[in-house]
Each structure stands twice: as C-alpha cells, then as structure tokens.
Amino acid sequence: MSKEPKIVIIGAGAAGISAACRLFEGGLRDIVILEAKDRIGGRIFTTDFADNVVDLGAQWVHGEVDNIVHDLAKEHKLLESSYNLNDTNRHVFVDATGQLLSQTESSKIWALYYTISNAEEEELTQHEGSHGDFFIRRFHDYCTKNRFTSSKRASEILEWMGKFDNSIQCSDTWFDVSSRGLAEYKCCDGDLLLNWKNRGFKTVLSLLMHEYPNDSNAIPIMEKIRFCTEVKTIDYRNPENIIITTNVGEDYHADNAILFAGEATHSHYYSTVHGAVMTGFREADRLVEYYGSYSWKGDDSSNESEETPGKQ
Ligand SMILES: Cc1cc2nc3c(=O)[nH]c(=O)nc-3n(C[C@H](O)[C@H](O)[C@H](O)COP(=O)(O)OP(=O)(O)OC[C@H]3O[C@@H](n4cnc5c(N)ncnc54)[C@H](O)[C@@H]3O)c2cc1C
C-alpha cells in the first residue's frame, strides 16, 4: 500500500489556504503549511477599525463572471456594489492645508486620472518604461495643452495620483509597475467594485475553510500551520525527499512541496501589503468616513456648491 505523501505548502495566503483545503477535502491529511508571518491571509489583511473593518490588502471583488471569489461569496449574499465610488461627481479633494476644492475642480481631477489610466492598450504596450514614467508624461502633456490649474496645484494633484495609483497597483512606487503589464491585466465581466459589506476580504478565507456560515464543518487548516516560520532554502535534488529549511533552523522533509509564496514575495515584508499600508490611503478613507461630521476648512456643508472654497 502506498503511503500518504507528505506535503509542505509554503505561505498561508489565499492560494496556500485554498490548496490545503482542496487537499484535505481530497482525503490527504499529512500536510504542513509554513508561514513567515504570525497570521494567515498574506495580501488579504482585514483589520478591525471602530465598529467596522479596514482592508489593508485585497478589498474588492473585481467582476462576477469566472471569478472564484465571487462564486464563493454569492451563495451567502455577502457582497454589495460600491458603484457610487465610480461616480466622479461624488468626491471632493482636500489639499494639505485642509482647503476643500470645488466639486467642479475635483471632478476634473478624477476625469483626468481616468483618462490617463484608461489609455489605449496599444499605447501602453508600446511604452517600454514604467507606468509612472508613462503617467507623468501624459499628465504634463495635458497640463501644457490645458492650463486647468496652477503649477503648484498640478504638482500636488500629480503626487496624489501617484499615491492613489500605488494603492491600486499595490506598488511602493509607480516606477515599479510596468506600463506594458497593465495592458495584460484582464478584467472579469460584471460589477468590478463589489465590497464585503462590513466583513472584509478575509471572509473569503473563512469560506474556503468552511468556517462560514457556521463552523461545525470547518476544515481544521489552522492546526496545520506553523506560524513565524520562514522558508530559507528548498533542496529539490531528491524529489522523493525534498528538504525545506526554515529560519528557525528546522528541516521539513516532503514528498511534495507546493510553493505559493505569492508572486511578489518581498525579502523583508514577505508579502506586499506594506505598499498599501505605507500610502495610508485605506486608513485615511476610513478615518474620513468615521469622522464624517468633521468640518473641513472652507466646508460650508453644501458640497453641491459649484463655488471653489479652496481657490487660491
Ligand atoms: C494592497 C493590495 C490590494 C489588493 N486589492 C485586491 C482587490 O481589491 N481584489 C483582489 O481580488 N485582489 C487584490 N489584491 C491581490 C490579492 O490580495 C492577491 O492576489 C492574493 O491575496 C494573493 O494571494 P497569494 O496566496 O497568492 O499570495 P500572498 O497573499 O502574498 O500569500 C503569500 C504568503 O506566503 C508567505 N510567505 C512569503 N514568503 C515566505 C517564505 N519564504 N516562507 C514562508 N512564508 C512565506 C507570506 O507571508 C504570505 O502569507 C490586492 C493586493 C494588495 C497587496
């Protein structure tokens, strides 16, 4: 009788957890997951904030067709649309001094951001450099042709666009993102901005592990995880005895090793959630929402006004 293979999964992000669940459901039990951090989720990182949550990593379910995350959540009606975020007329900008920009100017800024971001695929593919280079060049071209604001304001807007873009591309700087790569990103059809109501993206992990809606049939994946265990080397020379060495000097022997350490594994942060954390965008959004009644300088409490309170 052949013995059950020993399987080592590296990384307890969505891919690692999902693989472990599938193996478990297939009857395999001799599994260990080695995770560098002290938590599961990797780039899914939902944290509590007041009576709600903030997602520091994955936040939206992008699309409904051929999207496994959507399929998992749909059954339990866990998602709702954030369509109003796409309405550029519902957002106003605040400058570093706390001055509100008018609705008209704010809408123009959004429109400009989307015009540059939604550049034709051909244009993106032909650009050899980074997304940052591409965007800045297009931004300056636009400013030269349409003097829509002062040069000081233009550089503030460009700085904001860079930060906003990092929060979307999950990059530390937009010079790390390839312009051509963006053209290769394929969207699923359907609503691209579905949120998890007040639960956060980590719910997908509970769905995978069958902990939601009730945990009586939960797959005991958590007990298979070794936290704070970073894989340092993998010796594949003998496929029947793969040796995985960790930071704590332990060796794990496996018949099969599955590497799901994330496509952008970082030598210090392990997973790239820090990009979003460092921009501070997610926290800022939640703070503004939470302290919604705070009166900004120049806010006459009627944002519908076409006046420009922050005009300089
Ligand atoms: C800021 C941000 C926003 C995002 N927004 C969305 C979104 O809105 N919608 C969406 O669908 N997707 C979004 N994504 C992408 C999504 O989060 C990732 O595609 C997905 O979570 C990747 O899962 P993974 O398991 O492949 O990798 P990861 O989540 O990166 O998991 C890898 C795991 O391996 C661990 N690890 C790495 N190296 C080692 C090692 N040497 N030893 C042991 N463990 C190791 C890491 O700590 C981590 O836990 C976003 C990502 C980020 C960063």
Automatic annotation (TrEMBL):
Coiled coil: none annotated. It comes from the Eukaryota. Pfam families: Amino_oxidase. PROSITE patterns: PROKAR_LIPOPROTEIN (PS51257). GO terms for molecular function: polyamine oxidase activity. Gene3D superfamilies: 3.90.660.10, FAD/NAD(P)-binding domain (3.50.50.60). Residues 15-258 form the Amine oxidase domain. This is Polyamine oxidase FMS1 isoform X3. It comes from Fopius arisanus.
